[in-house]
């Protein structure tokens, strides 16, 4: 947290003035976040706006006000910091996503998600890098090395999973949500791995060995990050089940869950793994086991606390990006040639559009080949939505761009300044314009969903056959599943419905081995004379 | 939070290694906090230990391990930082204390609390300062100015309200809890005000005008800090009631409550008020109005979230103090004369004991004079407990001592180093030794409480007459109150039972004006077609 404040205390004289500037910043940010929440609430019914855009707009307006007050010298009160983003803001968002994700839907589409997230990001990375090399080399934007072009590819392949969460609705479009969001999580990991690989590898001579090393590195990172997340989740479940914290204090249960989740993220950072993947899987495991081992009030508390922390972090990020976008220092390098900045931004936006189209449609086709029933296939309209919903670029892109093109948030090179301003432009444009158009687009391309979800909630007697294909991936009830999924009798069945079969054996394993050890739904903690948990008891 | 990380990014090269040292620190701290929680849970039934002492011991052991690993060079991984303490750790603890305090008991004892907290702290400050001047001047400890002696008075007058919360139990000893804890909050404010006053005023010539100015300054700070806290609480209640956030999202309600509470603290810091008082009163107002305006799940969430955050912050502070205590750098200045350090620490401990005795017993006598019934009076055994329970010195003392005697956590002057090591010794000794002895002492001095509370919980039919004097100040139910408090008929009644009468008129005012505007218990938000809140409905 403020582990480095100590080094800054040298110039502090009095207690009450100590770091008064940071007190001012905190006040401003907290007040602005409150304003965003209130405005977001008032705009809830609005069909265009969402909270991200509100925060971006408020952030930009505040930036303008600060710019005017400071006489055109300064527009922001804090320098964009990767650590603030990666260590404090991203963990709650990704953990909450894992904690609240509909697990069945996520794992049923696991192969498609991996295809999109890993292979798709690689395709997008190659296309954007090659496009940047081909086009920018001919333009007068200063010296960029091969490493810079590859970094551009990685930066603009990172979709904004935070924004995706806001424009897609898990209940209205469950398949799309799990595909796009799941892809986003894997994509984040892939981009960061690619980016680190680019910075570490000697890029002057690339051969097959190097490429294999990269692939191996990615597989190692994916496997170890996932394993760490699962281990942290299981450990928390085991500790809480074994010691039965709820006997003495609800707060200890909540504290252990929060701290173990954060610890898994920080351990992954410590070992240079993909912390995003780790905390995502830790969230999934915690919601499957740990959450069912705690008392009823801890359950309510953790569910809402994680959601609230994630919500505050999201607003903070967009406010921050909006305020930072007007930083006069970055723009003064490109002010002599505004045309070039506009050109570069447009080219990058074009490459983002093409790069994403180049993998969504072919990979959807591939994925559809493995599906037998028409309901499981991804329709063309759904493909267009997937393509569109993943176009937004956000704080991950910003953080990577700052890391590649600046030192401590500042740059003196013209080419670097152009890349920074272009990244800001792409982030703002894609978030605001693509973001604004996503909700209406979904309504046009997939008109049945909104209508349908309303029907489901108002008329529970709607004919089953009509809603089953959709409900199938929303319902997360194990009891339901046991009824619907037939026992696979033969190898032929395993081949025809692999995900159902895998799921069946997973459930058997879960019930026979995992739950007795780690708890989970229906588990009632044993303690002599303890009050029986009402919800746990009901479900057993 | 990490608003200053940006300035540290200059020496960062790769994304994953960015500030790797702080990643290591965070991992270690989070893991240690988890360990403290688990050990604290296992020691719950123990009659001596509490979580603070566990954390102090674990912190010291970790310090020893780090000292051995680093070859005797270093024992801590972070420098003690006032900002970390005052900006991030203290607000959740004090807010939660205000939020969970039994309001009726607190306000009924308000005059006694103010007497102890303000006048008592001043008496203690004068005695410790005069004692330090008288004794230390004769000892060979280096040059200390008059301002340093007065600072010593302020530093060692600050009781540790965090530790008090852990050794006293609100349900077992409600009167003592509200007196000692309420005093602790006012005391914190008084010490910080005194400390700031000492640093700002020209101490070479003190006259009556200066003294009056100091008193005026204190009264202004107290009034304005309280007003700000009340205003922030009422604003949050009004916004949530008016806009009815629960209609769309529980998370917005929780977020607004957390952010408004934190904003009140930071605003007080911004205007150089006593942020501790502000956030304490904001907690009281929020639990009286705002908390009743939100949905049922928000109520459960906020209650446990505030408690959990406070719990984590407390453990963190003690861990931190324990680890910092072994900092080799501070001890090397006094290593040539260990006798002097022991002498100074013993003298300070003695002054703390005398300084507290000098106000607890006389002021209790004064307070008893105004009470008519023997139950309302503070018995001698209770006075001893109050004296004892407020002897612990904690992180506030540490923070003030670092502020006065170091620059950025380091010092080169021998006298200053001695004061720092003595402060650490006093804090460790008072927390561990006095802390360990508080639970048994309460059991000896006030034997009926433990027994009684067990009787109440197991036998709800215990004769009323026996438990009424104790239950009277625990029960916080308004319905109960309306029955028990008679309508005051005359001025004589106001004079004989002032607190009851004030409370009666406050309830009338609250019901007639405040609740219709700000909500509160029994309020059901109006929204067309909204689901009626079950708890709000039941209580109406």
Q: Your description of this structure?
A:
The structure is a homodimer of 540-residue chains. Chain A has a domain at 81-315 and 343-450: Na+/H+ antiporter like fold (Up-down Bundle). In chain A, 74% of the residues lie in helices and 0% in strands. Chain A has helices at residues 5-8, 20-42, 51-69, 82-100, 103-108, 110-136, 146-155, 161-167, 174-200, 208-243, 250-270, 275-293, 296-324, 328-332, 338-370, 380-389, 395-405, 414-445, 448-458, 464-474, 478-484, 491-496, 498-518, 534-539. Residues 1-18, 449-486 and 525-540 of chain A have low confidence and may be disordered. At the A-B interface, helix 1, helix 2, helix 4, helix 9 and helix 11 of A face helix 1, helix 3, helix 8, helix 10 and helix 12 of B.
